[in-house]
Amino acid sequence: MPTCCAVIGSVTYALKGQRMLSSYNITSRVIKVRSAGTAGGCAYGLEFDCINTDTVATLLRRGDIPYRDIFRL
Amino acid sequence: MIYFDNAATTYPKPRAVYDAVLRAMTDAGGNPGRSAHRLSMTAADIIYECRCELADFFGCSVPENVVFTYNATYALNIAIKGLVSRGSHVLISSFEHNSVLRPVAALAARNVTYNVFDASGSTVQIINNIKSLVKRNTTAIICTHVSNVCGLELPIAEIGEYCASRHINFIVDAAQSAGVRPIDMRAYNIDALCIPGHKSLYGIAGCGAVIFHEKYKENYMPFAPIIEGGSGVDSLNIEMPSLLPERFEAGTLCVPAIAALLAGTREVRRIGPAKIAEHELKLKTKLCELLGEMPEVELYLPDGEEEGRPGTGVVAFNVKGKPSSDIADALAKRGICVRSGFHCAPLAHKTLGTGQDGAVRVSFSMYNSENEVRAFAAALREIISQP
Fold it and tell me: Does residue A51 sit at the B interface (CB-CB below 8 Å)?
């Protein structure tokens, strides 16, 4: 299954996002995003099944969890 | 040994706290928020759980507004120095600990002035005292919830209500009350709540927190960081991150201490803060009754109880004609642990009239008993009877 990543930033928000997605039965994994792929250099992201991309984006926005980008891994 | 110095730090801790510290060191030995391997993420999970627990306990719906520090003093410095701007004015109470008085006094370098409001007397009197000192440029009221010297409880709900009505920021030092007195940041309009991990939340030394009101977020944050350093995120940016909590957490967090705080807080909530408070106040009543039978003993009892401000299990006293340090020393020789002197709170001692020599302070925890109180009284009687 192809996986995607939502670039969140801090581990705090990544964990908040993970728990929030889990409450909607969406499984995700906290990962460190490739440094070169982020403007600030270091960031955490949430890896999830790409089939959930639109739902994840909506839930993160609704949950006030800022994300910088969503891309396919 | 009888340990009656819980206002300094509680001892012993619940079994769950010791276990949590050991587990944090063996299973979560990584640096949280730096890597993504198991040890780092396990540590990060513990920290996030603790943020959630504290936010829920103190009436804040936003766990990321819980910022970990080394202790309540650091938390107060972040809140006070991060908020108070050049040329402004603040109010502090007449019972403040040096962890409030010193940072406020140091702000004189930024042309910040301050006044001290008398916090003895009725709630109405205290609010009137505050009103008489507020100026146009008053930015904040900073006060302790409970005095570390005598256990006096200030009316923070009413002070918070007044602050909200006047758009004045309200910073609360909850070092002596977190875990034993109800604190609802939302209801009390507290902008920043500063707590230690190692007192009535039964964690260990090395951790505290400043909790910012849930209304504060990235684009609405009047507090600025006072410490800069590594945050684990946005390393190429030379400024601290804009989002909480990392904005205020430079450097490595003390994971074992935060794990202890999580376990301690859960234990306090399981037992019930009201039940713990009732137990400690019963011991205080018993002690005051026994000390009241000794004519040589002078007790310093605060007001407020009849107004729904019962305070905490802290008792300050002196033995007439004997320095407080001599009494504490004599008690220590008999295996009884108390604290003497000024308790880092010169304002409180000035207010109580003990500014010359300070006082002896007894402070209880949920682990103390009435038998210990009786043994203390017997030991004190023996000390007093000696020339």
Answer: no
- Taking the model in full, what pTM does it have? 0.96
Residues B251 and B278 occupy one common structural domain? no
Confidence of residue B387 (pLDDT cuts 50, 70, 90): confident
Residue of A nearest to B239 (CA): A40
pLDDT at position B144 over 90: yes
Measured between CB atoms, which of B36, B235, B243 is closest to A30?
B36
Q: Verify whether the Cβ–Cβ distance B231 to A44 is below 8 Å.
A: no
The CB density around residue B181, as the number of other CB atoms within 10 Å, is 20
**Are residues B290 and B264 part of one domain?**
no
Are B191 and B130 in a shared domain? yes
Phi, psi dihedral angles at B31 (to 5 degrees)? -95, 115
The torsion angles phi and psi of B84, rounded to 5 degrees, stand at -75, 120
Boundary residue ending a domain (B269, B292, B316): B269
B120-139 as b/e: b if 16+ CB within 10 A: beebeebbebbeebbeeebb
In this complex, the residue of B32, B36, B233 whose CB is nearest that of residue A31 is B36
pLDDT > 90? residue B250: yes
Q: Domains in chain B: how many in total?
A: 2
What is the span of the domain harbouring residue B362?
A: 2-9+273-385
**Which residue in chain B is spatially nearest to A46 when comparing CA positions?**
B36
* pLDDT at residue A36, as a whole number: 55
Residues B249 and B261 in one domain: yes
